[in-house]
Amino acid sequence: MEPAPGGRGLELLLLHEINAGTFARLYLAETRGAGGVDRIVAVKILREQWEGQQDIVNRTRDEARLLARLRHKNILRVEDLVEIDGQTAIIMEYVDGLNLKQLVDALVERRQRVPAKVALQIVLESASALEAAHFRVPTGLDGPLRVVHRDLKPSNIMLSVEGEVRVLDFGTARSTHAFRSAETGAMRFGSLKYMSPERREGDRGEHAGDIYALGLVLVELLRSEWLPLLPMDAGEHDSAIAQAIARLDQLGMPNSEWDLTLRRVLGQMLASEPSVRPNAEQVVKLLRAFVEQASGPTLDRFAYEVVQAVNWQVHGEKGGGALAGRTVTVNQLEGGRPTGPRAAAKGPATGPVPAGSFPAPRPAESTPSRSPARSSPAWATEPEPPPPGGNRALVVGAGIVIAGLLGLLLLGLVGGGLWVFGRGDQAPAPATTAPGTLVSPVVPTSDAGAAAILAGAPVGVTVVGQAAQWVKLERDGAVVLESRKAMDGAAPEGEYTLVVKLVGREPLRGAIVLGTEGLSLQCEGNAAGNLSCTGGKRALTLKP
User: pTM to 2 decimals?
Assistant: First the structure.
């Protein structure tokens, strides 16, 4: 946004306050551009008392610069870094919708819940944002920013009335890029409940901590209730997580194998040991596979039938804020300093907000809180636990979004019907690896067999006295695990074919049964030129 001709900055009409947080206030605003093109935006204004705290100011400016680089459909878009009345402010896109804290609280009051497929899709989109922030190379840079969000929680993930997901509030984020100006370590930012165990013990926050927070959000969405603060002790923590996952119901999976695999993935994401957790790239592949297999309504259908009504219930009456009704002139900040004089306020507006500047919210055949409720879809009306305690978080943005839902792969469209979806063909559940033994995955060609995932019965194979080229575990002709020379991994319980390739020899094969206790085999050559393996419940001979 360039200043208007004659040196005058961009004009904003601040309509009303959307949210008031600890560090900043969020306003809905209308731009008054010199070219006559007006837009609805959100403006995040740092509270006056923090302007003297340079580290807080720098973090706000870092957030704007960071989000300007992170162009992704699931990351809130930033338009400009400016100054209003001497206070640092960020102009950003306005998303019309609810954060997940507001959504779940409202659904609990209505005795509804977030459907499993919807919960998986929301977290898939959120994981995609984390993947882009940490691993992808932004345009114009020569490497990824390695962004760590460090404050991922339900109130920092928004769902629009169009079914779009946005990850918000990168003000506490850490990255490797040189544009950062805030010093790390002066304050420990973030919400204690969603901090990983290592972060609560003083770690500065790494990518694995974001995965932990995302896993906790997914468990809470699937439960449609909030978990308490988890214990610090590793054993007690993992036991509490296991109990929470065991109590999950209605996961929407097509069979017990898929259901068990999803529970294992959740356990891995929430493990107290960071090295056990998958990264965002792996989580995206896994969740995509689960979404494809899950039954129930899709995210866009849920947004149309439920989110619009709940959004009106939560935000039906808007207004207020110390700056509401004011027209202000803003100036861009460059290099962390203002480029022009301080913004000049034109004073409070006289009379109501001009017609057409922002339309009043209207229910579209939906239920405002003061109108008779329309019937809820059957999948949204299962009884829920009593509403959890705590204050309801205010929204951190809402808005007019024209882009449709992108990237959702819907399997099993029944008869071409618009809203009737099934599970589609049931692909085998993705294989998993045991805690502490994350290995390089065998990447299958389909997402349904997604890579390297994450818990199962341990399987180890060591070849003694022979030069092994590779070791494979196969099921129905498909490779589940593959390792060089020796195997150290895990797979779901069941029947497999163990295949060992000795250097200069054709592969040797034998049938094994993998139980919950796992297998640890030691194989060595015998007089017949085959491999005799011990360590299982019965002797095993591998033959050509």
Answer: 0.62
